[in-house]
Write the structure tokens for this entry.
Amino acid sequence: MPQRSDEQLLEDYRQGDSAAFRSLIERHQDDLLRFLVRLTGDRSSAEDVFQETFLQVHLSMDSFDPTRRFKPWMFTIAANKARDLLRKRVRRQEVDLSAPVAGGSGDSGPTYVDLMEIDIPPPDRRLESADQDRLVQQAVDRMPLSLREILLLAYFQRLSYAQIADELEIPLGTVKSRLHAAVASFAKHWRAVSTPNSPT
Amino acid sequence: MTTNDFAHSDALVSADAQALDRLLAAGLSPDPADARAHRLASLLSLLDSTAKASPTLVDVTMTRVLRAAESHGPRLHHLDDEALDAWVMAGGDPAAVPASLRERAHRHDALARLVTTTGDADHHALAALADRTLARVQAEIDRRESALDLDQIRRRRTGIRLSDLLSVAAVVLLGMSVALPVLSAVREQGRRALCLGNLGTTAAALSAYAHANRDSMPVAAASMGGNDWWSVGRGIDRSNSANLFALSRAGYVPLSSLACPGNPLAPTAPASADATDWRRLEEVSYSYQIMFGPTRPTWQDPANAVVLADRSPVVLRAVAGHAVNPLENAPNHLSAGQHVLRTDASAAWASSPVLKNGDNIWLPRAIEIRLDFGSGRNRPATSLRGNELPSAADDTFLGP
């Protein structure tokens, strides 16, 4: 029997097949949890948002447009839920607003990042994986939320610009410029955290 | 500030200066009995402007602000910029990126992997998370159901027992079970009359359009180029309904006349002033001859083909990936049949999608021949891909 599509699973769940919902969760749990850990910065928040996301999928399933794809819809819900959580957190810890967001360079013009000059470990040269994980997270945490969101949505879903624009309902040009800014921002912060002596 | 501040330049006569003070003290709402203050208020009202910020202005401003905010952050090397675009367009596969940018695309790929890879996935922990998530969803379902129960208990406390209510409800339901079919039949008759009226209005609009456009019928996009035509709201070159929408956009017919009362999701006004199509398939009430092919009917064509009808059930099912039944009627009128409009401007009710000449209005001739359902021997399940085209101007094939 061919594997049912995500959209078919959701429809089957709507029709009363409760096992279909578990299949949906299990199919996406790895990707979604990794995405949320990166976005929220810690595992327990990510698990909270993970549950909230599927609860929202259940509550909103009647409004899902079956001509669209499920996965981007789910990621968009997850990103919205994570954003709510992060906003609440910022309100609680106002001190964090002045965290080392901009890298502290203080100059007014943009800095240019050349990927060829940055040490990016290839997949087969993983150092201490837990250490690397922590450093990546530090770099992501230093990014502004709007850029973090678009970087992670693009990386985790591998969507085309047109698809991202469609799913986030923002103009194509904005998607492009924001993703470029996001990659530059991540590369810069990665360089800062992974090479401790580099200028930030 | 007082009026004395203006003493060195043009000055008001002292009565007006005092009136101005009074006017300011009254928050610019003059006392009706104060004629001078009134005149001053009228003078000041000349300064008002009727200008209003348009949504476009807001959008443009926001885009500029965002761009300015982003330009302060770090920027990619211009070759990395190009490589990122190429990598995204290649679906994240650096091997598919042109050789000159491939090395940099590999760096983008490595960067993406860095972010998307986290510590070892603990499968036990994930299974537990799935269980907790399902439990949470179940708890929400239980909570909603018990809220319903509580409502019932609350009603009980008002002095009326549930059994009393149930017996009343039973009587009401008995009465309704007789009345409902009668009422719904009356309502459906009304809906059909309104729908037929819509086709009449649309026929007049098509005539006017054809008169102004050398007998042609509305087309929003000149050609298609292999795209599907059922992606409503995703661009005029991918949506046949945009061709019909063009009739309304050009001002020949209000959108409300393209909304069948049998389609509860049909909007009666465009979503925005610059809308070029309905937003999604479910909003479209009427299916229009597929205008993407090389052959298109003209208005008042002697072949007198059907060019518009209540919406196609075949497209609705095919889009959802389900098998279709070509003999199914439009869903607008309880699947009992559909109104059809011909190029001679006549509108009528048809109880089957197969016309007297054997043409099925939901399918192109190529598929009809393959299915051979004209013989009545079989009613096979089939499907559409959404890029099929009519074989000739008189081959009625309607969508979305």
Chain A is about 65% helix and 0% strand.
